[in-house]
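Late entry, evening session. Most of the bench is empty. Finally got around to the prediction I had been postponing all week. Sequence below, unchanged from the version circulated by S.P.
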Amino acid sequence: MMPPEPVSAAETPGWQPPSSTLVWRDGCWRSPDLSAVSYPAEGNAACFQVEDSSYWFQHRRDCILAAVARHPPAGRFFDIGGGNGGMALALQAAGYASALVEPGSGVERARARGLAHVVHATLDDAGFAPNSLPAAGMFDVLEHIEDDRKLLRALHGQMAPGGHFFCTVPAGPGLWSGADVDAGHFRRYTPAMLAATLAETGFAVEFLSPFFTWLIAPVGALRALPWRLRYRPRRTSLDTVAEDHRLPRGSAGFVATVHRWELERLRAGRKLPFGTSLLCVARTLPA
């Protein structure tokens, strides 16, 4: 394939990502090719209908922001696989320069929500220059990648030495269920699995903790146990996503209390004992 023609300064925005392969078209930077990803075609649309009101998205956002505040990035934060741009916008609102890197339809929603720095590409297709990303995040992305080590090695080569990498992943292989299959997951992680994966790909873990402690019981009872018993009538859809992100009647106060406790501990840099998700902060080591 011929390399893309350079775009004149008059046609581009003030910001240009560190890549010679991306082209400016229809309001954002785009890769000439888009690789396939293990993610439902309607996934971004399903998340968009719930993420502004969902207890899960709101708490995950707050926990990530707590980690970023304790380990502030040294430059622009690239949210890779960031869907509809909600996390990139939250980082921006908190005072961190951010950019969304997303191969799906979420880029259009992110632009409509006011996010200016958007790249429509996978990490592989974006072609970022070596040592060019000051900070990066992958929030519930690694589990969708069959060869997560390959992706992390590629990211390591594109990140600046000593740059911060933040990620969240689903925790607990024993909690595997049809919801993971429907979502396009390849695995759920233990803390040791995630730490080993990062260490093998050139990252030094600075902080690693579970969160969503209270969800262990409902996810185990309502998802994992039926899956193990081969009771599998449920398929994820737009309706079931909306259902999953509504709290049962009368539980909002309890959940809010637990979330406050979790957030206080994470803001203090203290680990939580268990949970259905993992939050990790790492730094790139010299190659």
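Two things to note before I forget:
The first strand starts at residue 23 and ends at 25.
The beta strands are 23-25, 28-30, 77-80, 98-101, 118-120, 133-139, 159-170, 203-211, 277-284.
Will write this up properly tomorrow.
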